[in-house]
Design a protein that fits this description.
Elements (H helix, E strand, L loop, with lengths): L2 H17 L6 H23 L9 H17 L5 H23 L4 H19 L24 H21 L1 H18 L4 H27 L9 H14 L5 H18 L5 H15 L3 H16 L2
Helix pairs in contact: 1-6, 2-6, 2-8, 2-9, 2-10, 3-4, 3-5, 3-8, 4-8, 6-7, 6-8, 7-8, 9-10, 9-11, 9-12, 10-11, 10-12
Length: about 300
C-alpha cells in the first residue's frame, strides 16, 4: 500500500477544507458542499465496480441515509454526529440484506434489480406520513456552531471516506474484490467465499452512500422522495464515466466538473437531466477512459516528447 499517496491525499483534503473556510456566500458554500458529496457518491459507485457490478441501487442507499439522519434528528433528537453515523449504518444494514439476496445475479440482471429497488424504496417514502410522505421532511439542520463551516465539514468527511475506500481497495480484501471481477472461479478455487466477499463490497459501498445521504440531508435541510429516484444513480454514473473509473481520482474529477457545470446551467434555467445524459454519451464515445485517462495520455506524450 502506498502510504505516501495516502498521506498526500489526507493533506490535500485538510488543505481544501481549510481553504473553504473563507467561503461566505450561501450559494457558493452549498455548491462546494454538493461537490464534496458528489465525489463521495461517485467514489462509492466506483467501489462496487471493483467486483464487476454497476450498483444502480446507490440512490436508494443515499435516500436511506438521508431519511435515517432526518428521522433521528427531528423525531428522536439524536446528536448531529450520531445522526450522521446512523445514516451510514442503516444504509449498510439494508445494503447487506439487499446484496445477500441479489448478488447471486450478475451484470444487467443486478443492475435492473438495483433500479427496481431504488424505485420501490422511493415509493415507500411517499406512503409514510411520519416522514412527510410526498411533501418530504423539513428542519434537518446541522448544529448552529457548524452551519457556517458546513462546506468545510462536508469536504473533510467526504475526503476521509474516499481515502478509506482507497485504503480498502489496496488491501488484501480489495485484491479479492478485483480478483472476483477478473475471474471469480480462480478466487473461489483458493478458498474465498465469492458471494460473501461481494456482499461485503456492496455493504461498504452502501455505508459510504448512506453517509453521503446524511450529508445531503444536512446541506439541503429539506428532503423529499423525488430527491432519491433512479436519476440520482444516473448522475453518479455520469460523474464516474466522465472522470474515469480506472483510477480513484476519476470520479472525483468527474463529480467536481459536472456539479460545477450543472450549477452554472441552473442560472440559465437548468437542464440537468439532458446535461448528464449528454455527458455520459460524450464521455463513452470520445473519452472511454474519462478525463483521468486523457490526462494520463497527455502526460505520457509529454514525457515521450521530452526524453
Amino acid at each position: 500500500m502506498d502510504k505516501k499517496t495516502i498521506v498526500q491525499a489526507g493533506l490535500s483534503v485538510a488543505a481544501l477544507a481549510i481553504a473553504s473556510l473563507s467561503i461566505s456566500s450561501g450559494y457558493i458554500s452549498s455548491v462546494v458542499s454538493w461537490m464534496a458529496i458528489a465525489t463521495l457518491l461517485a467514489s462509492s459507485l466506483r467501489f462496487v465496480t471493483l467486483i464487476g457490478e454497476l450498483n444502480f441501487a446507490t440512490a436508494a442507499f443515499v435516500g436511506l441515509g438521508a431519511y435515517g439522519a432526518g428521522v433521528m434528528l427531528t423525531i428522536f433528537e439524536w446528536p448531529f454526529i450520531a445522526c450522521l453515523l446512523f445514516s451510514g449504518v442503516v444504509a449498510a444494514l439494508v445494503g447487506f440484506a439487499f446484496g445477500y439476496v441479489t448478488l447471486k445475479t450478475k451484470g444487467p440482471y443486478f443492475l435492473l434489480i438495483g433500479f427496481a429497488f431504488t424505485e420501490v424504496v422511493r415509493l415507500v417514502y411517499t406512503k409514510i406520513d411520519i416522514i412527510g410522505s410526498n411533501s418530504g421532511m423539513v428542519g434537518i439542520f446541522p448544529p448552529s456552531y457548524l452551519e457556517p463551516y458546513y462546506s468545510s465539514f462536508a469536504i473533510a468527511v467526504s475526503g476521509l471516506f474516499i481515502i478509506a475506500l482507497y485504503v480498502i481497495e489496496k488491501s488484501h480484501l480489495g485484491k479479492a474484490f478485483t480478483g472476483i471481477r477478473d475471474n471469480d472461479q480462480v478466487v473461489l478455487a483458493v478458498g474465498i467465499n465469492v458471494h460473501l466477499t461481494k456482499v461485503i463490497c456492496l455493504t461498504i459501498g452502501a455505508f459510504t452512500s448512506g453517509i453521503a445521504g446524511g450529508l445531503t440531508a444536512f446541506v439541503n435541510n429539506v428532503i423529499s422522495p423525488g430527491d432519491f429516484s433512479y436519476l440520482l444513480s444516473t448522475f453518479a454514473l455520469a460523474y464516474l464515466k466522465v472522470g474515469g473509473e480506472e483510477r480513484p481520482m476519476g470520479p472525483i474529477l468527474g463529480a467536481i466538473l459536472l456539479v460545477l457545470l450543472s450549477s452554472i446551467s441552473l442560472l440559465f434555467g437548468g437542464a440537468d437531466h439532458i446535461f448528464y445524459g449528454t455527458a455520459i454519451i460524450v464521455s463513452v464515445l470520445i473519452l472511454p477512459k474519462g478525463l483521468i485517462g486523457l490526462i494520463e495520455q497527455i502526460q505520457f506524450r509529454f514525457k515521450r516528447d521530452h526524453n
